[in-house]
Amino acid sequence: MDINLIIVSIYSYLLGSLPFGLLLTRLFLKKDIRTIGSGNIGTTNVLRTGNKYLAVATLVLDLLKGYATVYITILYFNSLISFSALICFVGHVFPIWLKFKGGKGVATYLGVVLALSYKLFLIFGITWISLSFLFRYASLSSIISSLIVFIYAYFFEMNNEILILFIFFILILFTHKENIVRLKSSTENKIKL
């Protein structure tokens, strides 16, 4: 097996699996985020603790781990960018430290997108914020925003990352499958911005 593949797999997974939402709420609130709200370790659930600062910190740190992973790969293993991005995302969603029960991966995905293209990052951000203010559903905003990023990249960017952006859209649909059920039954929790 290619040694570069092994190296990229290890650091991409380990960076992706860092559970910042859990670490921050334990450190500053002395609570286990997995016992609050949806039980998820991500930004939206940290926001349910009522502490917006910790929610923003979770968002930034989860974003940074996605960005850092891809940035390292761009510098040293340029041919494995998409692979690295995918493994980082998998690490966040299935972290070994939490018995493979992690977050939904949106902030980590956003960090990956930032490393790939500032333009796609802005498109996601503007779309997500607009939809969140309009509908107040973080899940719906995340799903549609990741779809918009893929569609824009497909028609206007035409680069090597189109396939991975499509895979990410499918994975975000997968990680939000319970949210989709709640959206259909009108029982999905709204966010307070």
Fold and architecture overview:
- Helix content is 72%, strand content 0%.
- The chain has one domain.
- The protein is an all-alpha fold.
- Helix 4 runs antiparallel to helix 5, helix 7 runs antiparallel to helix 8 and helix 8 runs antiparallel to helix 9.
Task: Note the topology.
Layout: H1 3-16, H2 20-29, H3 43-47, H4 52-76, H5 81-93, H6 106-116, H7 118-135, H8 138-157, H9 162-175, H10 177-184
Helix pairs in contact: 1-4, 1-5, 2-4, 4-5, 4-6, 6-7, 7-8, 8-9
How many discrete structural domains? Answer: 1
Radius of gyration: 16 Å
Order of helices and strands: HHHHHHHHHH
What's the total count of β strands?
Answer: 0
Overall mean pLDDT score? 94
Query: Unreliable stretches, pLDDT < 50, 5 or more residues?
Result: none
Number of helices: 10
Kindly report how far apart the N and C termini lie: 48 Å
Question: Which percent bin holds the helix content?
Answer: over 70%
Choose one word for the global shape: globular
- Tell me what portion of residues adopts beta-strand conformation: under 5%
The largest sheet is:
none
> Which structural class matches the secondary elements?
mainly alpha
